[in-house]
Amino acid sequence: MNDPRQAAFAVLTKMQKSGAYSTLAVDSAAGAFGADSTARAFFTKLVYGVTERQITLDYVFSRYLTKPIKTLKPEVLTALRMGTYQLLYLERVPDSAAVNESVKLIKENGFAFAAGLVNAVLRNVARDGANLPQGDEPNALSVRYSAPVELVNLLCHHYGRENTERFLQSALEPKRQTVHVNTLKTTPQALMEHLQSEGVECEPTRLPDALYVSGSLTALTAYAEGLFHTEDVASQLCAQTLALKPGDTFIDLCAAPGGKTFTAAELMHDEGTVIACELHPQRAELIRQGAERLGLTCVQTKVADAAEFDPDLPEADAVLCDVPCSGLGVIGKKPEIKYKNLDDVKELLPVQFAILCTGSRYVKHGGRLVYSTCSVNPAENRKICDKFLAQAPEFHTVPVLPDEPRAVDEGDYITLFPHIHSCDGFFIAAFERD
Asked: Does residue 186 sit within a domain?
């Protein structure tokens, strides 16, 4: 049996050295636990917990260091973060175990010279607790919610302190997995009963055709039968914005992993044409397999660059540009994203704009164009859309989810937030061609 602490230590150290994504690293290592669900759960909790609380952890234990954190070996830093996380956030782990197991990790991984340091620092943390800074200042919010000061400042500037704090707090709360019911094969109530019979806890969401579920899903009979696909509420709301009807032609320009493609096809009752475009052949194949599992015959997949016009694509009643983005809306699920340099988004902006402009060329007169991201950074969202409108007079905006509350006034656009809309952070804009 794999030791969950050792496995977490290896993954966290690798992430620190190479910048590996937590989701990919966890998925890759979790298989080693086999049927030991308790060990796997503890391993996962350690990796995600240490990652999402990194700034807070560093603040707490650095008070007991005589040298800057940057002088520590990555392995020593990982051990201190893991030990501090267990001391502060895992009530079921005794303080003695949090300290002793962290010292053990250091010794067993070839860094015995730092055992005394790790032991002394963690004992101080156990004695003194967190003692985090209070107040509304950006530095205090940064430490309490483990978010870089530049991210706190960005969010406060555009959405205000209260929304910023609630958004960052929601990112640290337990996440719920959402599925979209394949209404071509079943009903929400019938699927709920089916899932419960397979031991899955589930409950309704704010959407009629979506359920909150828990646990692993791919081994279920209901999954094999194509009765659902995994998709967040925000993504499902985006698909609804397309205003599709049976018989339409719909192009999803950045389709992977396929959730909005599948929901759109189901909203169309599997009647019409859905073209799912994806740059990478492997991901396009996964979309094809997903459509086959769900029994969606109207879905076609195409390997294509969304930023380049493709004359072989038809005119469409609706086009979706769910563009590559910084992912700042999903930091609760992918916590390492919040530590990335915000200036990196500058490389994405031309791509996002190009995809929106290209997508507009496929829209027939009277058709709809939807632009979306899983980011809450206005530079990727309303600024891109305003720039597009300024040079596309044949398009006009249409209200998106007009009955939903807004964090700020964005006109016809909307930015969804987990603390307001119970979904991922997400931006949606819709346009119609005259």
From this structure: no
